Amino acid sequence: MTSVAVRAAPQSIASRSVPSKLHSAAGSGTVPVNLTLFSTVADLAPGSHTAAEGPGEGAALLEATRGMVRRFVLLSDAQLTVIAAWIVHTHALLAAETTPYLAITSAEKQSGKTRLLEMLEILVHKPWLTGRATPAVLVRKIDAHKPTLLLDESDAAFNGEQEYAETLRGVLNTGHRRGGRASLCIGQGANISFKDFETFCPKAIAGIGQLPDTVADRSIPIRLKRKAPSETVERFRRRDVSDQANDIRQRISAWASGRVKSLSVARPELPDTLSDRQQDSIEPLLAIADEAGGDWSHRLRGAIVEILGGEASEDQSIRVRLLADNFLWGSRQSRMREMISKSARLRAIVSLPPNVFAHTSIRSAILVLQKEAAGKTYMASSKSVADLRAIAEDYAAWRRGQRFSLGFEVDLGSSRWDVSYHEPVDFGLGGVTFPYKVVPLGEVAQIDAGKRSDAARIAINRTGSKVIWLEDAPDDPIVKNNIFVAPQGNVNPLYVHFYLSSSLGKRALAKRITGATIPHISPKDLAGLPVVVPELRQQGKIVEQALKIRQITATLEALAFEGQQSLSDRFFNLEAVSDKFLKFSENTEKAFYQRLPFPIAVVYRKIANAANNTQRYSLLIELFEVVIRFIVLVNLADYLNSRKAAETLVQQVPDIRKLSAPSLGHWVVWFRSLSHIKTAAQSQPFLREIKEFKLHDYQRMLDEFVNIRNESLRGHGATLSEGEYELKFQEHSPKLNKLIGDLGFLANYRLVKTGSMDKDGDFYKISVQNLMGDNPHFESDHVVLRTPLETNKVLYLNAEAESLVLDPYIILEVCPECRRPEVLLFDKFSEQKITYLGYESGHKPSFPNVDRLPLVIREAAARRH
């Protein structure tokens, strides 16, 4: 590594060299900083290959296999070519000495990994699709049956139970070459012995992130990404494709079994740009391509070099630079940051401690850049140069998709790159996710001792034990006994007060108090006190929340005092005051709507946060609509599960044809009709309680709200005053609250979206996203059932573990407009698309129809005129 004299930090990304020896943070000696810790450079170049000639049955089979996979999974041409050859290889394993693994990975969920495994399951030889098996079963089944192992959720396996993870790692490390074995104990008691089990078989491993290095070294990487809204594939239904897949699989098996001898003696030309292990792994695939004929010999070699060479070129494209700290945040460098962001990805930014350059106080940072790549950025802050090796190892773990602890990851724009600005954890703040910076108090406020300026808003006594908001002080504090703080224009004064009054601020103050006999804090020490400063808008949010909590706390204290007085003075007349306390509790407990499905709960939250009565009244109508629509859609999903039920529904509810473009009036009509639809005696609706629901109590209210919505659409009432809207809200909200209260049975059901599913003995462990309450992050959970559930679907679960698939009427998808997951309710449909409504964002995204609705409903809608 090149060495240069370090007198000033480089200012440009085009630095020609980096310092090899940086001054230790401890101030003595020199510590070498090896920047290659953060990069891996490989020297691979593309090669040329000669295509075999002569198309035949093998080429046609490979083409058919490739086309089958392409219909249902979004893959590149190179990936499709390699996967097709690998599928044939599973049927010709007898001819191979080695087998390459398929490492199917992605950076995030819902990128098609499980779908690709499902496609492989219907095409490969002896498929074994699993997400989890005990170590004993894993080894014994491979030894006995020589299956094609299709392992899902490998990230969970390698980061989970240590015994299983190590057994799996051992199987994968030895199972790529014929003769590979794993040893296990057998027998019981005094008869314990050991046995070698063969581990050689084809394997495809899917998971988020990177595989362990020893496994990845034996694999062909198939990296997937979540498809964009403009990218489409066919919906996969096993029953619709099983016949065609069986035909292709049988033809492949017949073709491969007749060519075992020729494949076993084949010595295909190997790309000399690959490593020895890569050449050994891909040799059986190239033998199949050469045997197949046509242009497959050329195509497969090009695809392999593109994929495996791409892995090398990815590392080769990484560049590491050392830059001055002001490059990360300075306004003069903003155009340079923007230019780099457009052409490269910042894989990592690691800030270095001050005095890292000998005899200077220049701050600097390490940047790791990769050309033309997208994704998040790893950030870390080193306390000394000696930390860099540990941080580099932590960064490597992050790159492999494994657990990391010293840094954090962010979606980085071009505005600021300094680590302290984005760091989500500081002084023990574990849950902070918004960007902030840590600055001395003297940079954001004027500090005065012995005098009080007109701009002063906060006083801190000389002992540092009390923080006073001057406007709330009953008496003017004695000037000589206090230090006065006047926050400047770039911070919210109340935010500074609340920060200094918090346990975080008090701990920072305590560290600056000196004097054993008379503890005190000096203005200079106070000016250096670190302050966590978010953006000004975030400061305002924190202050608003703090003021609300303080107001509620004061109200609760007053109410508690009144309650104690009532218990003491009005013991025999408590009924007169009890309603007040019950009502207060009901109106303030957020749990009131956390038990409701997300689309309903989120509108409740919006009403609570509405800025004025006009918004509250408008949201009240929206709440009515979402409640009615949600009940109708659940019933529709229930009744439309079969064609016979759908035909009954069309006969008993003729207006169902309006589903193609319904109004609120139509939703209300369906709400009435579906509550009383006649079904067979043995047929119970999923929402059983809807049969006992006293709908006639709400006939007038339903009509009222439909009229209110129609008036609002026509613009009537647009000129009403705030007071008039408040009266309307007060008039109608109790009616709607009573309706929702009577629909409280919804709390007995759980709205979820299913994910992966593992078999565990007699039970299925199914990962789910919880879609209840108003939390838009949809926390992950799992359910354990005796029967499997459909995966990747929005379902309604009841207390008896019964489920109702709500797709396509209620879905959880990424909104194309706001680019975040949202629970969407069916709005209308056409032959080409279904339009949904998101009550959190108000957006109306559309997704391809692809015959997702029952035919009888589409036929009824076509006859609506």
Shape, please? globular
Spatial order of the strands forming the largest sheet? 4-5-8-3-9
Distance between the amino and carboxyl termini: 78 Å
Helix content: 40-55%
Structural class: alpha+beta
> Mind describing the biggest β-sheet?
5 strands, parallel
Number of helices, counting only DSSP H or I runs of 4 residues or more: 29
The averaged pLDDT comes out at: 77
Gyration radius over CA: 33 Å
Low-confidence parts: 1-32, 40-55, 312-316
Number of E-state strands: 29
Strand content: 15-25%
Topology summary:
Layout: E1 21-23, E2 30-32, H1 57-72, H2 77-91, E3 101-106, H3 113-121, E4 127-130, H4 135-145, E5 148-151, H5 154-158, H6 162-174, E6 181-186, E7 193-198, E8 203-208, H7 213-216, E9 219-224, H8 238-257, H9 260-265, H10 276-292, H11 296-316, E10 318-324, H12 326-329, H13 334-343, E11 344-351, E12 364-371, E13 377-381, H14 388-399, E14 408-410, H15 419-422, E15 436-440, H16 441-444, E16 445-449, E17 458-461, E18 467-469, E19 482-487, H17 493-501, H18 503-511, H19 523-527, E20 530-534, H20 536-569, H21 575-588, H22 591-594, H23 598-608, H24 613-639, H25 643-652, H26 664-675, H27 699-713, H28 722-742, E21 750-760, E22 763-770, E23 780-785, E24 794-797, E25 803-805, E26 810-814, E27 821-829, E28 833-838, E29 846-848, H29 855-862
Parallel strand pairs: 3-8, 3-9, 4-5, 5-8, 11-13
Antiparallel strand pairs: 1-2, 6-7, 10-12, 11-12, 13-14, 15-20, 16-19, 17-18, 17-19, 21-22, 21-24, 22-23, 24-25, 26-27, 27-28, 28-29
Helix pairs in contact: 1-2, 1-8, 1-10, 2-10, 2-11, 10-11, 23-24, 24-26, 24-28, 25-29
